[in-house]
Amino acid sequence: MVTREAWLTKLFNEYLAGPGNALLGLFHQTAENPKEPWADFIVMQILVALLIIATIFILRGRLSVTKPGKLQHIFELIHQFIAGEADDQVGHDGHHHIVIFMTLFLYILFANLIGSFPGFVSPTQSHYVTAGCAFVAFLYYNLVGLRKNGLWKYTKHFFGPIPALAPLMFPIEIISHLARPLSLTVRLFANMYAGEKVMMTFLGLTYLFVPAIFMGLHVFVGLLQAYIFVLLTMIYVAGAVAEEH
Fold first, then answer.
1. For residue 245, is pLDDT > 50?
2. pLDDT tens, position by position, 118-167
3. Residue 181 · residue 138 · CB < 8 Å
4. For the residues 13-29, what does the mean pLDDT come to?
């Protein structure tokens, strides 16, 4: 975990320690230091959510068919890209899942990139955050698989195509599926944590040209990891909604 505390987190702990402790109390948790109940990853997630909501409201007020602005062009490109990937990976059912794919992509992208700005920290360098995203993906693809195929047909996916190998394939498939959220969690967390460490190390050494290179690399890694996370989610959804032939 990153030990430095963002300036916004300090403000939360200074002025909102009471609500923070009350929030933890709802989940039967207590802070190690009641004077500092807010952690960076919690405050940064709140900020990311507010930024996304504000961006959507700004974009909605500027939508235009005849004269689309730069922001509209950017989000249209993102939507077209995600929709195209969904069609390629999931097939004809891809458009049914665009909302979850776009939500995960934008949230992870914003969370990854916010750490590129001085004074802020990427919440995705915390395993709590990446585990939450992984759990959402895991829960979603299993639910849509059950809804699409029903309990029996969906369960048959775990036995494999050869009946004789079903007793062997079933535990392997169960372990494989349970390993997916762990894989998503560790991949995103490890890459963002390492990227943040490298960037902060070079920022501490020099403030000239070298840090700019690693900041650019950090942005690239953040974009790439958001894409990989959503791509794997698409692949999992595709397997869950596949119809047996």
1. no
2. 889 999 999 999 999 999 999 999 999 999 989 888 888 888 778 778 88
3. yes
4. 92
Q: What whole-number distance in Å separates Cα of residue 53 and Cα of residue 76?
A: 17
Q: Give residue 205's pLDDT.
A: 67
3-state secondary structure the chain: CCCCCCHHHHHHHHHCHHHHHHHHHHCCCCCCCCCCCCCHHHHHHHHHHHHHHHHHHHHHHCCCCCCCCHHHHHHHHHHHHHHHHHHHHHCCCHHHHHHHHHHHHHHHHHHHHHHHCCCCCCHHHCHHHHHHHHHHHHHHHHHHHHHHHHHHHHHHHHHCCCHHHHHHHHHHHHHHHHHHHHHHHHHHHHHHHHHHHHHHHHHHHCCCHHHHHHHHHHHHHHHHHHHHHHHHHHHHHHHHHCCCC
Helix axes 166-205, 209-241, angle to 10 degrees: 160
Asked if 205 and 214 touch (Cβ cutoff 8 Å), the reply is: no
Q: With a cut of 90, say whether residue 224 has pLDDT above it.
A: yes
The pLDDT score that the predictor gives to residue 49 is 96
Whether the pLDDT of residue 194 is over 80: the answer is: yes
Q: Domain limits of the chain?
A: 92-241
Encoded tokens for 220? 């690239």
